[in-house]
Amino acid sequence: ERAAHRLLLESDEPVDRARILPGAIEILLATGSVDESRELAIELTEIGERFGCIALQAAAAFGSGTVELADDDAAGALPYLRKARQLWLGLNCPYEAARCQAAIGRGLFALSDFDSARHELTAANRVLDDLGARPDADAVAGLLRPGVHPAGLSDREVEVLQLVATGRSNGQIARALTLSEKTVSRHLTNIFAKLDVNTRTAATAFAYEHDLM
Predict the structure, then answer these.
(1) Are residues 134 and 122 in contact, defined by beta-carbon separation less than 8 angstroms?
(2) Is 12 helix (H, G, I), strand (E, B) or coil?
(3) What is the mean pLDDT of residues 159-184?
(4) I need a labelling partner for 145 at 20 to 30 A (CA). Which of 26, 112, 153, 156 fits?
């Protein structure tokens, strides 16, 4: 993270920053810096449009999509990721296109479209495996394994539910998970629907009954 910040501070020319920004976005997302990553994705988008460079536009769309995924807005992420994949395919870049397809699968999983998600992930895994991109292929294979959470809860939904069960408010949950309160509210709506409950107390009881605490 420090290295990414240093390189960004040392680079002010658009061409230089265009080389740095895609990697910086991924590094900062991995550390939970969603807002900063979003600003960098916007900058990369502007550079790509200014120079009319398809590869930069593809990288910017992928960056924007992964930012929205990290912010738990899968519906907002998918248009970016699909655009990125089409651009990379047009440039005959199968590795980059497969990474986009894997991210699309993650987004579809988050939206509970499990059949479509598995289709996208299986296709991405096949390409990555054929290319010898073992770490990426293994990561995608992990997403294809059957889920272990009850009621079809996602990993993020379990995190939210666990914090609900400790008595946290939506605002406190948002701060703990680096999310917006709107996103937390959306997760709670999905959790209540999956658990078929109407109150935080009932959701808390479910969490304890199913050993999620």
Answers:
(1) no
(2) coil
(3) 91
(4) 26
**6 has pLDDT over 90:** no
Per-residue model confidence (pLDDT) at position 148:
61
The answer to whether 67 and 61 have CB atoms below 8 angstroms apart is no
What is the spatial distance between Cα 82 and Cα 59, in angstroms, rounded to a whole number?
Answer: 12
Dist. CA 34–CA 158, nearest whole Å = 20
Instruction: Report which DSSP code applies to 71.
Output: T
Per-residue pLDDT tens over the stretch 144-165: 876 667 888 888 899 999 999 9
User: Two tokens at 95?
Assistant: 């590795």
- Report the phi/psi class of residue 169: left, alpha or beta, with left for phi > 0 and alpha for psi in -120 to 50: beta
Average of per-residue pLDDT values in the chain? 91
Q: What does the radius of gyration of the chain's CA atoms come to, in whole angstroms?
A: 19
Q: 64-92, pLDDT tens digit by residue?
A: 999 999 888 999 999 999 999 999 999 99
Residue 102 tokens, joined:
């894997």
Tokens read off for 117: 């998600």
Residue pair 64/40 in contact (Cβ under 8 Å)? The answer is no
Beta-carbon count within 10 A of 201 CB: 11
Sort 28 into a burial class: Cβ within 10 Å, 0-12 / 13-18 / 19+: buried
Mean pLDDT calculated for residue range 175-182 = 88
